[in-house]
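Task 17 of the worksheet. Students: predict the tertiary structure of the chain below and write it out as structure tokens. Keep your answer in the requested format; marks are given for formatting as well as content.
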Amino acid sequence: MNLNEVIGRRLKAMRGQRNWSLEKTANATGVSKPMLSQIERGESNPTVSTLWKIANGLGVSFSSFLEEDQPAIKKVNTADVEPIADKDGTFLVRPLFPMEPGKSFEIYSVELLPGCHYTSESHGDGVEEYILVEKGCLSLTVHQNYFNLSAGENIRFAADYVHVYENQENDPVRITMMIYYP
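Model answer:
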């Protein structure tokens, strides 16, 4: 089953668990009814931004759309994980370890291609992001604070307001991102 089908099946199940119509879901998430319907049918390739809007509106983690059952041991090769891209295709997110029951975090590999400028909405009260720069130089703005982070540098911040990731270099930037939910 491809990633779009997994996302669609999970969205439909979450909406069903809440007994929400497409209209109620659209109002809660800010994503149109036609787009939600296309996602549920696996006919749309939702962007990172769209999935964040839906996750925030439903009060679930981003990764809750990506996997249902977690094995006791999971080995992941980042290159084998299908990325989810933003609208312009320069912000690529690969879910490595989606949130599991009883765990309050999820881990991603993120690649920012040259020229990437990605604005992330608030993830909710108390949510924290941990960023580990693996390759390149990441420009990050968090609540009007600006940071330049090189490979080997790391940062943690409260993600309950807008934050911006940028690659102002000519080479890709690769980061590992952990999101913690209290």
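Marker's comment: DSSP finds four helices and ten strands in the chain. The chain has two domains: 3-65, 78-180.
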